[in-house]
Design a protein that fits this description.
- This protein is α+β, with helices and mostly antiparallel strands.
- Helices cover 36% and strands 20% of the residues.
- The longest helix has 40 residues.
- It is elongated, with a radius of gyration of 31 Å.
Length: 216
Amino acid sequence: MSDRKLRFGTTDLVRRSVVHHLRVYAAVMLGVAAGTAVLTGALLVGDSVRGSLRDLVLERLGPVDEVLQAPRFFRTQLARELAEDPQLQAHYQQVLPAILLQGTVQQPDSGRLSSRVQLLGVTGEFWSLDTAGLSVRHPGAGQVVLNDTLARTLGVKVGQDVLVRLRRATLVPEETPFGRKEEAVETMRLEVVQIIPARGLGRFGLRPNQQLPLNA
C-alpha cells in the first residue's frame, strides 16, 4: 500500500506541477516556435536576396570576366595585342576596348537634365557579348543609343537630339593654376537612334549598385 500511495503521490505531483506551470511552458514553446520561424525566414530571405543580387550582377556584366581600368586613356591597339597573346587566348575568348565616363545628358527642348549618366564608348563587337537577347543598332557619328531608364527620365524619343556633356580630358588638371577652366567641359549634340531595354548590356555597369543605371 505504501508503494502504491507513493507512486500515486508522485504522479499527482507531476500532474499538478504541469497544470500549475502550463502557461509558462506554453509561452516558452510559443517563443521558441516564433524565434525558429523568424530565423528560418531570415535565412530564406537572405539566400533569396543573395541569389537575386548575383543574377543582377551576371546580367549587367554578361560574359565579362575581368576589366582593366586605368585613370588615363590607353591605345586601342593594346586590346588587339592582348587578344593575340597565346597565354591570354588560353583563358579568354575576346578582349575589347571601351571608354567609360560619367557625364550629363539634356533634352534641349524641354531642358530636362540627367546627371551621373554612364557614357559608354564601345565598338560594335561589344554588343555581341549581350546575353539578354538585345538587338542593338550600333550608333554612327553624331548618334547615340540610350537605355529606356535614361530615355524616360529625359522624356526623349527616337529621332530627337540630346546634348551630352562630359569633362574634357586634359594633361593639366583644371584645378591647378595653369588649368583652363573655360575648356573643361565638352558638349556634343547627338541624335537618339535607338532606345534599348535596361536589361543585359542595356544596364551594363561596373559599380555594385542595385539601381537601374542611366546609360548612353
